[in-house]
Amino acid sequence: MVGYILWAQKSGFRDQAVLELDQITVLPALHGQGIGRALIDQSLPQVKSELAQQGSTLKHIIVNTRADNHAQQLYRDALGAEVVATISDLYSADEVFIVARSLLL
Question: What CATH homologous superfamily does 3-100 map to?
Answer without folding.
Answer: Gcn5-related N-acetyltransferase (GNAT) (3.40.630.30)
